[in-house]
Amino acid sequence: MPELPEVEVTRMGVEQALLGATIEAVRMGKPLRWPLQVAPQRLVGQRIQSVQRRGKYMLLQLSQGVLLVHLGMSGSVRCATEVGEAGVHDHFDLFTTRGVLRLTDPRRFGAVVYAPHMDHPRVQQLLGHLGVEPLGDAFDAAYLHAALRGRSGSIKQVLLAGQVVVGVGNIYVSESLFRAGIHPLRQARRVARPRLERLVQAIREVLQRAIVLGGSSLRDFKGTQGGYGDFQHEALVYGRAGLPCVHCATPIRRVVQGQRSTFYCVRCQT
DNA sequence: CACGGATCCTGATGGC
DNA sequence: TGCCATCAGGATCCGT
After folding, report:
1. Mean pLDDT across chain A
2. What is the pTM of this model?
């Protein structure tokens, strides 16, 4: 589920709720994708000094280390002063002086990983290969042009892989390519420069709009206050197979690339 | 090194 | 109602 907008919405909520709080207790449920890498007790007494984001990771800077939180496909984080009894899908709780952070993740593709500092090899392992931030200054057509040179894979899959640009997941990649008029099956290196300009703009606008709307809630994503995101109502192609294209009325097509659905308009996207 | 495919896990949904 | 197949926001690992 969570792509960059959902993680950013989560990050802002956690920052609002728990910045400056001190961890008092930790509860862990079933194992997530990767081990925490530290005895939970070592988190106790540490203060949450900042809440940042890198790609789809949320980074909690603690007094003596960093906590990397990934929401996987089905994760969401709730912040509250009180939470009830942990349910079967609640796999990580941080009890702090300002309230509780609870990670709920039915499929358990998410992760919470601790490292003593940002230069630690584990952090490098998880974040080191990531591409540029799509909302940052480094992401422009010149960069994309250079980064896509020699890439024979489809533009959709190259963007999704996260090594060129991060945070653009399965929903927003379809939405961005539609807005840029680029066919998702086109080889990445064959996207002409003017199209790359449009693509950069489209990715930025789609992600920013999704953040404003609180992300997309296809089924289980919720913000830290428990509310749903609304971007899915503005999706122009994602999940709209067979429905008319908003520009030309041609039925939207669904294809599968790398076991993931892609939605596009055969007429508007070339 | 870049690529495509299999894989982790659980729940929702739709067809019969 | 039950059963089975299919699909779901991600990212890593493993061959080629």
Report:
1. 97
2. 0.97
Q: Using the 3D structure, point to which of A74, A105, A127 is the last residue of a domain.
A: A127
Q: How far is the CA of A47 from the C1' of C9 (A)?
A: 31
A260 is catalytic: yes
Q: Catalytic annotation on A190?
A: no
Other CB atoms within 10 Å distance of the CB of residue A253? 18
Q: From the candidates A3, A6, A15, A175, which is the catalytic residue?
A: A3
Question: Which residue out of A2, A5, A134, A184 is catalytically annotated?
Answer: A2
CA A132 to CA A188: how far, in whole Å?
A: 17
CA–CA dist A115, A121 (Å, integer): 9
Residue A199, SS3 per DSSP: helix
Per-residue DSSP letters for A5-71? HHHHHHHHHHHHHHTT-BEEEEEE-S--SS--SS-GGGGTT-BEEEEEEETTEEEEEESS-EEEEE-
Same domain, A148 and A238: yes
A2 is catalytic: yes
Q: A33, A72 in Cβ contact below 8 A?
A: yes
Annotated catalytic residue within A11, A53, A56, A253:
A56
CATH number for the domain spanning A180: value is 1.10.8.50
pLDDT, position A1: 64
pLDDT of residue A42: 98
Domain that holds residue A50: 4-127
> A204 and A107, same structural domain?
no
Tell me, yes or no, if A197 is annotated catalytic.
no
Using C1' positions and the CA of A106, the closest nucleotide is B10
Query: Tokens 């997309």 correspond to what residue?
Result: A216
CB A62 within 8 A of CB A36: no
| Domain boundary pick from A65, A94, A127 | A127
Say how many domains are in chain A: 2
Residues A239 and A190 in one domain: yes
All residue ranges of chain A with pLDDT < 50 are: none
